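Please study the protein below:
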Amino acid sequence: MTRQEIFDKVCERLRDGTGRAMRCDGSEACVYLNKDGLKCAVGIFIPDGHPAQAFMFEVYELLSNYKDLPSFLYEGVELLKICQLIHDNKLHWHGKTFLPVGEDRLRTLAADFGLEYKC
């Protein structure tokens, strides 16, 4: 996948109306895959059944611990790290709705990486 394809897929995930992928214990922690099957911005790129889905730390640590994930993840790690931060920020959400402030952050991210922002 190209960086543009990664960005577009993350945008689609953030806007899909399912909200943040949170731990199901009521905490504020986001996870790559929660018990309800919801995936986060990076979790959507982890193959189903892969042990990395249960990993609890940031993107750099994820990729350091699981060297067998798809190669485009390593090539787009800086982009993915920021995408994950956008996903995790509770100020970007109202319930399951991704807010305009989050869209503004996506627009800035696209500009920073030379990507096309499609709303």
Summary: The first helix runs from residue 3 to 14. The beta strands are 93-94, 97-98. The chain has five helices and two strands. The chain has one domain: 3-113.
